[in-house]
């Protein structure tokens, strides 16, 4: 018997459009001989719609026009998608075996949608509630990873209320480590609201910009090095891919450099000594374990000119777009995208 899989995409997040691209890849590669697929999009306003069309190029097919109101029931005795046709006059329920949340950023990989699945008692793809929340919050990730002794950049955490005393905040940062700084919202995905500050004016501007995306900001020392990434898959038995490298067209790999700049490039087999690659893969397992990860994650590092390795961040619902490293890294091991998606669905758990 086929499993019934609910694929969630879109979402109330600054990475809504990236989610559409990721879901396009997954919906076009999911094995229909094994799974009955129910694609549900969440609009930027938060409306849930069951997509009824046959064209899964979600970025330009006007999917919302082919949507029927639907919600995932939190009632664990139902384990169902509730569809409302003709207003509220016709209610249909579809049994759901697995939820695949193809949602990036807030309300997608921060534990919120995972909590709904937990309430509904429906197995889901990816990390659990605590793991997702900790990994989404870059500050808490730092604290968790420190328990494993994995090297990471020095950092200062700044909260919104602290900006009422800007001079004190600036002094705290400048007294901890020197310019330039990377400024990141603590909870806003891996590419949004990030800036680099080479002086006090840019630091203040960067803090204000980051605060538009979250009430807590991480200020990190700048690490000069190559940006590399690994893909992790598994629950009890963890598999780590090879080590890929990001060749960013911009000064750093922000949202625009990642998704809009055609000059940015990715290499699935970084030109690094094998001993460094193996150390990176070992650190990736340590990070995944530190946050109690399961299912999948992408773990990013810097490699300094002297060969030193610095943990950058973990992404518990990495992109599945045509330029995303997660599927490319496992494809390099011989897995097709369909095989990757199948493995992830079979790893789904509570």
Automatic annotation (TrEMBL):
Give binding positions for ATP: 138, 182-184, 190-191, 220-227, 312-313
Assigned EC number? 6.3.2.4
- Which GO molecular function terms does the record list? ATP binding; D-alanine-D-alanine ligase activity; metal ion binding
Task: Quote the SUPFAM superfamilies the UniProt record gives.
Answer: Glutathione synthetase ATP-binding domain-like (SSF56059), PreATP-grasp domain (SSF52440)
- Positions with a binding annotation for Mg(2+) 1: 300, 313
Matches recorded under Pfam families: Dala_Dala_lig_C, Dala_Dala_lig_N
Q: Name one GO biological process term.
A: peptidoglycan biosynthetic process
Report the locations given in the UniProt record.
Cytoplasm
Cite the cofactor comment.
Binds 2 magnesium or manganese ions per subunit.
Q: Which residues bind Mg(2+) 2?
A: 313, 315
Q: Provide the catalytic activity annotation.
A: 2 D-alanine + ATP = D-alanyl-D-alanine + ADP + phosphate + H(+)
Q: Which UniProt keywords apply?
A: ATP-binding, Cell shape, Cell wall biogenesis/degradation, Cytoplasm, Ligase, Magnesium, Manganese, Metal-binding, Nucleotide-binding, Peptidoglycan synthesis
| Essential cofactor(s) | Mn(2+); Mg(2+)
InterPro entries to which the protein is assigned, alphabetical: ATP-grasp, ATP_grasp_subdomain_1, D-Ala_lig_Van_CS, D_ala_D_ala, Dala_Dala_lig_C, Dala_Dala_lig_N, PreATP-grasp_dom_sf
Q: According to the UniProt record, what class of enzyme is this?
A: ligase
Please list the residues that make up the active site: 15, 190, 324
**Gene Ontology annotations for the cellular component aspect, listed alphabetically:** cytosol
Q: Taking the first listed entry, what is the main subcellular location of this protein, grouped into a coarse class?
A: cytoplasm
Domain ATP-grasp as annotated: residue spans:
142-346
* Family, similarity comment: Belongs to the D-alanine--D-alanine ligase family.
Role noted for this protein:
Cell wall formation.
Give the matching PANTHER family: D-ALANINE--D-ALANINE LIGASE, D-ALANINE--D-ALANINE LIGASE A
Q: What is this protein called?
A: D-alanine--D-alanine ligase
Q: Per UniProt, what is the name of the gene that codes for the protein in this document?
A: ddl
């Amino acid at each position: 018997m086929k499993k019934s899989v609910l694929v969630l995409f879109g979402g109330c997040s600054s990475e809504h459009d990236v989610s559409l691209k990721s879901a396009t890849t997954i919906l076009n590669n999911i094995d229909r001989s094994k799974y009955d697929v129910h694609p549900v999009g969440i609009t930027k306003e938060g409306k849930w719609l069951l997509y009824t069309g046959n064209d899964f190029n979600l970025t330009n097919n006007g999917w919302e026009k082919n949507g029927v109101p639907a919600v995932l029931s939190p009632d664990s005795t139902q384990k169902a998608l509730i569809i409302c046709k003709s207003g509220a006059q016709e209610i249909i329920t579809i049994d759901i075996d697995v939820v695949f949340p193809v949602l990036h950023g807030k309300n997608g990989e921060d534990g919120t949608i995972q909590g709904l699945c937990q309430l509904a008692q429906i197995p889901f793809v990816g990390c659990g509630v605590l793991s997702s929340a900790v990994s989404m919050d870059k500050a808490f990730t730092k604290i968790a990873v420190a328990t494993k002794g994995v090297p990471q950049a020095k950092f200062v955490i700044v909260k919104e209320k602290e900006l009422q005393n800007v001079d004190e905040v600036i002094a705290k940062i400048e007294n901890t480590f020197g310019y330039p700084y990377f400024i990141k919202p603590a909870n806003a995905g891996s590419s949004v609201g990030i800036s680099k500050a080479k002086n006090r004016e840019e630091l203040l501007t960067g803090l204000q910009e980051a605060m538009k995306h979250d009430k807590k900001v991480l200020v990190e020392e700048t690490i000069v090095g190559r940006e590399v990434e690994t893909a992790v898959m598994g629950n009890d038995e963890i598999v780590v891919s090879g080590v890929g490298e990001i060749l960013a067209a911009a000064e750093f790999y922000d949202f625009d450099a990642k998704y809009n700049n055609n000059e940015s490039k990715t290499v699935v087999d970084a030109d690094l000594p094998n001993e460094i690659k193996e150390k990176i893969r070992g650190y990736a397992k340590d990070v995944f374990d530190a946050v109690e990860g399961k299912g999948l994650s992408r773990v990013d590092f810097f490699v300094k000119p002297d060969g030193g390795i610095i943990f950058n961040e973990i992404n518990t619902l990495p992109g599945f777009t045509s330029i995303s490293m997660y599927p490319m890294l496992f494809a390099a091991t011989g897995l097709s995208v369909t095989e990757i998606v199948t493995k992830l669905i079979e790893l789904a758990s509570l």
